[in-house]
Specification:
Length: 507
C-alpha cells in the first residue's frame, strides 16, 4: 500500500485497561505512530473499557505511563483531550445506545432472549456435528412486535448482529490482499450485552467512525472479526477505514506471546534496567526493516522510511536474550559513560530508591561496605534460583504448588505494598494449613537468592510487582527443570482448587 500524503490520516491504538501494560500494546502504538508521523497525521489513544469487571483505573494509568516511558506519545486521548472525545468507551455509552437502536430499527440487528442453557445446547450440538459454533438465529423468527413487547416488559436480552446466511465476505486487507470468509463461519455477534454495555465489536466500529480513523492498524487476531465489522459499516452506511493487521508477537516456542513464558509487562523491562529506546527499537525490529537493513534505529528513523511494503508478516519472536543484546549495544554504542551514569541515576541509583532500601538494610550493616552486596538482589534483574534448596522446608512438589498459588495471588494484587504482600503470605499459609515459617524459606530463596536476607515483604514492595512475579516464575521453572514441576494435569487440578479456595484466577 502506498503511504498517503493526505494529512487527514488518523490512527489509533485502543487498549483495554486490564492487567499490566503489555508490550503488544507498545508494539501496536509504535507501528501506528511510525506510519502517522511519516504522513503527518494524528494518533489517538482510546481506552476500551467496556468490560467493566476487568477494567481498572490503575491499569489505565499504567498504559499512559508505560507508553510515555517509551516515548510513544499520542495527539488525542483521555488525559490530553481532543476534538473527538470522550476517549474512554465507558463515557460514550449514549452514543452506542443510539447507534444500536438504529441497527435494530433497520433490521440489521435484533434482540435475542435465549437463555445461557439454550445457547450451550446449540453450541454442543454444533460441535458434535463438526460445525463452527455460532448462534442459530432462533430469535430472528420473532416478529418485530413480539420482540418489542418482550423488550418493553423488561425481559433480559442481548442485541445481535444479523449475518447473511449464504455467500462469503470478500474484503481487502492492506497487507494480505483479498480475504474471503464464508458467512456461515461468522457468528451473529452480540453487540449489546444484557447489562446494556456494548461489546468490543460495536463500540470499536462506532468509535473508529466517529473519531474519523482512516487506518486501523492492529493485531492479526482481529482479521477474522473483519466480516462483522464490515457488516456494521455497511449497515450504518459508513465508509470503512483501511485495515492493516500486524503479525502477533510470539514466544520463542512460536506460541502467542504470553506472560507465562516471557515477561510481557512494559514495566518489567523498565525495572529490569532496559533502556526505553532499545525496547522501542526491538519492537520495531519485530516486523520492520529499514531500507539499509541497519539494526539500531529510533522511532523517528523508522518513521522517515516507513512504508507498509517493508512490514514483514512472519511470526516475530520476542526473545528477551536478543533484546538484552540490543540493549547492551545501546549502552556501549549510543551512550557515553556520563550518559550511562545519568541513566543509572534515573533508574535506581537515586535517593528515592536508595531511601527505601537503606531502612531495610541498616539493622544488618556492620560497615558501609556491606550495603552493596547485601542489597544487590534489589537492583538485579534476575537472580539464580537453585532448585535443590528452593523447596526450603517443603517437599519440592509442595513448594511448586505454593509458588504457583503465590504467583496468581500476587498477580491480582494491584495495590503493591508491604502490608498487602504480608497479608497474601498469611492467607496462603492459613489456607494451605501450613505455618508461615514453613513456606517463607522458599520465597526468601526465590526472591533474594538466600534464606538470610532483608525483610522479605518490604523487599518485595521495593522490587515491585514485575520483578517479583518474574522471580516466582523462574523459581517454578527451576523446580520443574529439577523434575518437581506441575504436570499439565496437576496444574488443571490446582486451578480448580485455587478457584475454590481463593476465588477467580487472574487471566
Ligand atoms: N481493545 C482491543 C484490544 O485490546 C482493540 C483492538 C483494535 O485495535 O481494534 O486489542
Amino acid at each position: 500500500m502506498e503511504n498517503s500524503s493526505d494529512n487527514k490520516v488518523r490512527t489509533r491504538v485502543a487498549p483495554s485497561p486490564t492487567g499490566d501494560p503489555h508490550v503488544g500494546t507498545a508494539y501496536m502504538a509504535l507501528f501506528n505512530l511510525a506510519f502517522t508521523r511519516k504522513v503527518g497525521g494524528q494518533f489517538v489513544l482510546r481506552i476500551e473499557d467496556t468490560d467493566q469487571a476487568r477494567s481498572s483505573e490503575a491499569s489505565e494509568k499504567a498504559i499512559f505511563d508505560s507508553l510515555r516511558w517509551l516515548g510513544l506519545d499520542w495527539d488525542e486521548g483521555p488525559d490530553v483531550g481532543g476534538d473527538h472525545g470522550p476517549y474512554r468507551q465507558s463515557e460514550r455509552r449514549d452514543l452506542y445506545e443510539e447507534q444500536v437502536a438504529q441497527l435494530v430499527e433497520t433490521g440489521a440487528a435484533y434482540p435475542c432472549f435465549c437463555s445461557a442453557e439454550r445457547l450451550d445446547e446449540v453450541r454442543k450440538a454444533q460441535m458434535a456435528n463438526k460445525e463452527t459454533p455460532r448462534y442459530d438465529g432462533h430469535c430472528l423468527s420473532l416478529t418485530a412486535d413480539e420482540a418489542g413487547a418482550r423488550v418493553d416488559s423488561g425481559e433480559s436480552h442481548v442485541i445481535r448482529l444479523k449475518v447473511p446466511t449464504e455467500g462469503e465476505c470478500v474484503f481487502e486487507e492492506e497487507l494480505r490482499g483479498e480475504i474471503r470468509i464464508p458467512w456461515s463461519q461468522v457468528d451473529h455477534q452480540v453487540l449489546r450485552k444484557s447489562d446494556g454495555f456494548p461489546t468490543y465489536h460495536l463500540a470499536n466500529v462506532v468509535d473508529d467512525h466517529f473519531m474519523e480513523i482512516t487506518h486501523v492498524i492492529r493485531g492479526e487476531e482481529w482479521t477474522n472479526s473483519l466480516p462483522k465489522h464490515l457488516l456494521l459499516y455497511q449497515a450504518f452506511g459508513w465508509e470503512p477505514p483501511k485495515f492493516i493487521h500486524l503479525p502477533l508477537l510470539r514466544n520463542p516456542d512460536k506460541s502467542k506471546l504470553s506472560k507465562r513464558k516471557n515477561p510481557t509487562s512494559v514495566f518489567y523491562y523498565k525495572d529490569a534496567g532496559y533502556l526505553p529506546e532499545a525496547v522501542v527499537n526491538y519492537l520495531g525490529m519485530m516486523a520492520y526493516t529499514l531500507p539499509d537493513q541497519r539494526e539500531l534505529f529510533s522511532l523517528e528513523e523508522m518513521a522517515e522510511s516507513f512504508d507498509f511494503s517493508r512490514v514483514s508478516l512472519g511470526g516475530p519472536i520476542f526473545d528477551v536474550t536478543k533484546l538484552k543484546w540490543l540493549n547492551g549495544r545501546y549502552l556501549r554504542e549510543k551512550l557515553s559513560p556520563d550518559e550511562v551514569l545519568e541513566r543509572l541515576k534515573g533508574w535506581k541509583l537515586n535517593d528515592s530508591f536508595l531511601g527505601q532500601v537503606v531502612p531495610l538494610a541498616v539493622q544488618r550493616l556492620e560497615t558501609l561496605a556491606d550495603f552493596a552486596p547485601m542489597t544487590s538482589f534489589l537492583s538485579a534483574a534476575e537472580i539464580e534460583a537453585d532448585a535443590e534448596s528452593l523447596a526450603g522446608k517443603l517437599e519440592p512438589a509442595e513448594a511448586a504448588r505454593i509458588v504457583k498459588v503465590a504467583e496468581w495471588e500476587f498477580e491480582k494484587l494491584r495495590d503493591w505494598n508491604g502490608e498487602a504482600i504480608a497479608a497474601i503470605f498469611k492467607r496462603i499459609a492459613e489456607t494451605e494449613d501450613l505455618k508461615l515459617k514453613q513456606i517463607m524459606p522458599t520465597f526468601f530463596l526465590a526472591i533474594s537468592g538466600s534464606t538470610v536476607s532483608l525483610p522479605l515483604f518490604e523487599s518485595m514492595a521495593v522490587l515491585g510487582p514485575d520483578l517479583c512475579r518474574s522471580r516466582l516464575r523462574r523459581a517454578l521453572s527451576a523446580l520443574s527443570e529439577a523434575g518437581h514441576g506441575l504436570s499439565k494435569k496437576g496444574l488443571k487440578a490446582l486451578e480448580k482448587e485455587y478457584q475454590a479456595k481463593y476465588g477467580a484466577r487472574p487471566d
